[in-house]
Amino acid sequence: MSTAAPSTSANVSGPRRRRIGPGWARSIARHALLAAISIAFALPLIWMAATSLKPEVQAAAGGMSLLPDPPSKTVEYAAANYKAVLADPTVNFPLYMRNTILVATLSMAGMVFSSAVVAYGLSRLKWRGRGPVLALVLGTMMIPFPVIMLPQYLIFKELGWIGSLKPLWIPAWTGGAFSVFLLRQFFLTIPRELDEAAAVDGCSAWGTFWRVILPVSKPALAVVALLHFVYTWNDFLGPLIFVNHRDQFTLALGLQLYQSQAGNIEWSLLMAASTMVVAPVVIVFLAAQRFFVEGVSSQGLKE
Amino acid sequence: MSRSSAPPVVAPTGVSARRRSQGSLQVGREVGVLRGLLWASPWLVGFIAFMAVPVGMSLYYSFTDYNLVQRPVFIGLENYERMITDDLFWKAVGNTVLYAAMSIPLCTVAALVIASLLNKPIMGVSIYRAAVFLPTLVPAVASAMVWLWLYNGDLGLINRILRPMLEPLGVTPPNWIGLRGSGDKFWAMPALVFMSVWSVGQSVVIYLAAMRDVPAALYEAAALDGMGPVAKFRHVTLPAISPVILFSVITSIINSSQIFGAPYIMTQGGPDRATYVYSMYLYDAAFVYDALGMGYASAMAWVQLVVIVLLTVLTLVMSRSLVYYRAA
Amino acid sequence: MPTARTVMQWTRRGVLGALAAGGAGLVLAGPRRAHDAPSDRVVIDYWEKWTQDEGRAMQNVVDRFNASQSRIFVRYFSISDIDRKASIAIAGGSPPDIVGLWNFNVPGYATSGAIQPLGDLFDSGTLRMDDYAPAVRRLMMHRGTPYALVNTCGTVGLYYNRKLFKEAGLDPRRPPRTIAELDEYAAKLAIIEPSGRIERAGFVHTEPGWWTWFWGQYFGGDLYDQPTDRSTASSAINTLAYEWVATYPQRYGVKNLVALQAGLGNYGSGQNAFLSGRVAMVLQGPWLANVIARYAPSLDYAVAAPPVDESIYRADEPISLLDSDVLMLPSGCPHPRESMEFLAFTQRPDVVEYLSTVHCKNSPLLRASDEFLANHPNRSVSVHGELAASPRAFIFPRTPAWPMFRDEMEAGFHRIWRLEDSPASVLKKVDVRMQQALDVSRRRLERRRAATGGVS
Question: How far apart (Å, rounded) are the C-alpha atoms in residues C385 and C374?
């Protein structure tokens, strides 16, 4: 059986074999519906990219085509738009890109590592107080950001982090409630025989975690990593509050700076800037998609 | 091994964990409290430094007049009393409730429908899945801008599509979100709600994972009872994944009570405060209106926290009869 | 099949690898900071809201200052959401040296102690109050103390399309002076289709719609009475003014006005309502000339004082809003002395006039040089100068609660414009809400005074 969805394929193929006609028709209908939904979901992004390829006059003119007129000049027009965005002296997108990559990577690494450690302690070790700590972890998910944002700012200031990128990534090294929770749920499904075997071999708790649990949890770790990477990449309010200096701007903030320049910005340029911010994440996702979605939905343990 | 080879990563509280719990959940290496706390220490340090202390600080500020620059002055309950008579506060509360009341059911239904469509081994499923998930990768700032462009009354794609359909009927498509309050007062909030459906991808993936985990035997039994696909969805899938739906609804309540980016960038709360939501008033109270009213903003943030906790508890209590936990 | 799969896998790994490598390269070798400063000078950080052309002009001023001496180096940063960012930075104890904000920020910042008084600049004789237009003087002060400097300002005048005037049989040398005349001209200039669709409007209050709160001023009203700290939004005069506003939707139809608005393009584009001739008369600032020069250079237009109610019309004392940008010194500014030096530089007449020319605004100084008037991109800049010099020029109400006032008036205006509620009822509601906010604001201030022993 292939890796994809073993259990569900079993329960669908049964009835389908019995009633070929309706099943076939239903499959077509399902495809049509899914295609329509997919187009509806992808259209805004496609339209964004398409607008970024056109000169402003055409973007505002009302044509529904995806490419500029004449299509042969697409590259030329697109280059003009993107060059205009990159050359804008008020926004330094390469610098913001660098900051964002740095923050997202450091933050992701810390989030995955620390959340895994904590999740291990909350799932595969038994100790008094484990329940209350888990409840606390879940409880913090209810705290709205506005409650803590200003005090956090004052704390970061006491720590001397304001004026650097630290407020954007160091807190991730303490783990996050959602990631801890996801990993704990995954760790719970790992058969305990693995631990016992490791214990027999004389592995410490840390050794079991590092050499047994982590290697079999790669799909789950990948999901946590991707989700957190995307979260950090897109985070707007955090940098908005904690970053004062333009040298520390991230892409989301830079994009808003670019957009907030009164009503004088042209749609084609705005869409070009948006495309630049969105594209890297989309490419990462598309390249890692299989890994990611399989990791979420099935895969599991391979021995 | 192969029978249980589908542990969902994202399957909070419920079916899967409980199902497997007979085997492995309850047992683990016994360790002392200190060892246990040591393992949890990264999170505990962060919790104290970046959560507990700030929450306490903001509780204190909520009883003060604080402008960030000068020392806070203790004023007792005045900030909380002020909220009662502040009709802008109630307007913001009302708008936020309206948004949540429209967005949460719509997004939940949409996510469930899409997930159940995707929960079949059909060709190209990964493409469909990717298309639905992609929007969740788009930063709020970028998606606000894209939608501003799509909703543009004159040039926007949405009205370009609607116009040929509506104009023969003598209907003009609305100016969804106009600049500086020129948009349609009635349609601005629905416009934000429609937009929220666009980012249901994460819920879809979560529901999909939960649906994958429903034992095939249940469906086989349902098929023997002569159930069609809709009945199966209603009587098998929904009850089986109800704990996950509950989790997702609670998360949505928390998130939609904090909606900020889209109205902040797209409508600035207008037209005529029709999209002026709670977080925007909190932000204005803190930074824009009247010489840095951090005390009042902290009180508003605390009210938000208390309401979220109450709503979560309420949802959990009310769902007792609706959510189906399989006996261990 | 397996080969195809392997190829896919390798492609995927290749893409991810390339992205990772590119990212790492950017992190390691990419740009570190946007600005570099020489190490042997005192570095002054200056935050400003301006970007693009306006930002470049200010950067030029900064460059000139940096070249004019060798002790101080000013770094210019344009910041989005600058009023909030500035207050956080000041609160966090890491403020910039100088911050450029809007004039309505002055009362709020001064009240919360976020900015420092600039009395020294005037006491030392470096700057003279008398050099500035009277309305500018008023907005630099907070409760008798100078707290802000004005680097650019603009008054709002009536821009009218001369060509359309001629077509409608109106004398382009005799623009409307009173509200009654404005209505009369507007009716003559408008082109309304039988369906009610507005092909062209003579005048609409929503174009550009930036100052929904100021219509009472042209009838002699005011929204706020500073001495008594009362909201006067629902005064008889204001009510009269907004009843006049409501006559437009009553006459032309709400639906038609909304449709007109939806079809109008961006301010900074060729589809601008005034440039495209869809609206024949608008109340606008001098900066409109920059947009006209760029998108409709052949437009035949002129500028006049805003029409006012007949009872208060006086040819020698026009009534106009003076809007301005301000420079302020944050509390905790690391280099106050050097910052003052740069602030003084920005107020030199030649610098003020350079900036005003590029920004296409009138000068905040009472006397403008002939060169300035001759070379200004707005050929009617002298009209704007006269509006600024008038003792009846008005500024934003001076209360920290003003931003809320503005938002309330904006929301109320649109209710009136859509005929959802009567002006009297709308203004009454604004009054109640605003008086509440003003009372809170005053209570805060008094409590703060009491807590600090009278020194605030």
Answer: 13
Nearest CA in chain B to C411: B272
Asked if residue A287 lies in contact with residue A280, where contact means CB atoms within 8 angstroms, the answer is no
What chain C holds in terms of domains, given with CATH numbers, is 42-155+322-389 (3.40.190.10), 168-319+397-441 (3.40.190.10)
* Minimum Cα–Cα distance from C258: chain B residue: B182
The DSSP bridge pattern shows strands B73-74 and B64-65 to be antiparallel
ipTM of this predicted complex? 0.78
> From residue C151, how far is each of B33, B138, C340 by CA, in Å?
65, 39, 14
User: Which other chains touch chain A, taking contact as 3+ CB pairs less than 8 Å apart?
Assistant: B, C
* Chains in contact with chain C (at least 3 beta-carbon pairs closer than 8 A): A, B
Cβ within 8 Å of A, B 303-322: 304-305, 308-309, 312
Which residues in chain A are closer than 8 Å to B219, comparing Cβ atoms? 11
Residues of B in contact with C263 (CB under 8 A): 154
The C-alpha of C45 sits at a distance from chain A's nearest C-alpha, in angstroms, of 10
A127 and B279 within 8 Å at the Cβ level: the answer is no
Those residues with Cβ within 8 angstroms of residue C99's Cβ, 6 or more apart along the chain or in another chain:
C46, C47, C48, C82, C86, C115, C327, C328, C329, C330
| CATH code at A93-297 | 1.10.3720.10
What's the whole-model pTM score?
Answer: 0.83
Contacts of C33 in chain A (CB under 8 A): 95, 247
pLDDT one digit per residue (tens) for chain B, 328 residues? 333 333 334 434 333 444 443 344 445 678 888 888 999 999 999 999 999 999 999 999 999 988 877 888 898 898 999 999 888 999 999 999 999 999 999 999 999 999 888 887 777 788 888 888 888 888 887 888 888 878 877 777 888 888 888 878 877 777 787 665 567 778 889 989 999 999 888 888 888 888 887 888 888 888 888 888 888 888 888 888 888 888 888 888 888 988 888 888 888 887 888 889 999 999 888 888 877 788 999 999 999 999 999 988 888 888 777 776 654 3
* CB contact (8 A) between residue B39 and residue A120: yes
Q: What CATH number is given for B90-321 in this structure? A: 1.10.3720.10
- How far apart are alpha carbons A41 and B116 in whole angstroms? 17
